[in-house]
Amino acid sequence: MTTFDDRERAFETKFARDEDMAFRITARRNRLLGVWAAELMNLTPEETGSYATSVVQADFEESGDEDVVRKLLGDMLAAGVEIDDASIREALTSKTIEARRQLMTAE
Predict the structure, then answer these.
(1) DSSP classification of residue 96
(2) InterPro entries attached here (predicted)?
(3) DSSP state of 80
């Protein structure tokens, strides 16, 4: 029975590690999206840092990416940046890849 218990613990450990990595990738992606959006809105370096943090925090409003897309779209349109939902979703995909790459090379 110990082999089964060991295997079960190994699966639980892998699941926990995978969930942690997914969370870290999403948080990094959201920070990268915040920096990207801040550059398009011509924010100062100080404003860029706080804006990137606000994008990370916006992801905690509801599950999924809709809250982040809604925040970015609203903020960017309010700042006079002409952008659409599809462009933000495209950036979301590219920043996810970039965030995963950054975290993989950091380990």
Answers:
(1) H
(2) ATPase_inh_sub_z, ATPase_inh_sub_z_sf
(3) T
- CATH number, position 75: 1.10.790.20
For the record, the structure tokens of 65 come out as 């990416």
Instruction: Name the pTM for this structure.
Output: 0.86
Q: pLDDT tens-digit profile of 8-59? A: 888 898 999 989 999 999 999 999 999 999 999 999 999 999 999 999 999 8
Confidence band for 1, pLDDT divided at 50, 70 and 90: low
∠ CA 49-53-97, rounded to 5° = 95
Query: Total domain count for the chain?
Result: 1
Which helix or strand (DSSP H or E) is residue 12 part of?
helix 2-40
